[in-house]
Amino acid sequence: MPATVTCTRCGETRAGFEKPPFPGPAGARVVEEICQECWARWLKQQMQLINHYGLNLMDPQARTFLTKNMSAFLFRTGSGDDIDTSKQGTIEH
To answer: pLDDT 10s digit of each residue in the chain, 93 long?
Structure first.
C-alpha cells in the first residue's frame, strides 16, 4: 500500500509512492514530497512537451530539458516551459 504524503505541489494529503518513479535524487524527492495525482499530471504535461517539441529522448539535451521542466512543474523551482501553440511544428526549445 502506498504511503501517504502531504504534497508540496497541491498541498493535499494523498497517496504517495513506495518506490521512486524517477531515478536519482529527484526520484527520492518525489517520494518524499509529491502525491501520485500530481505525478500523473506531470506525466501528461511531459507527454505534451515531448510531442509539441518533437523531443528525442535519446538526446541528453532533451532529457535535461524535461528534467528542468519536471522540477519547475512539481516543485515550483525555476521556470517551466508552457506549451506555446504559436510555435507548433517547430522543435526549438
So the answer is: 568 999 999 999 999 999 999 899 999 999 999 999 999 999 999 999 999 999 999 999 999 999 999 999 999 876 655 555 555 555 554
* Residue 30 near residue 17, CB atoms below 8 Å: yes
Q: Which helix (H) or strand (E) holds 47?
A: helix 36-53
Cα→Cα distances 93→66, 79, 82, 88, Å: 11, 13, 11, 11
Report the run of H or E that residue 4 belongs to, with start and end.
strand 4-6
Does pTM top 0.70 for this prediction?
A: yes
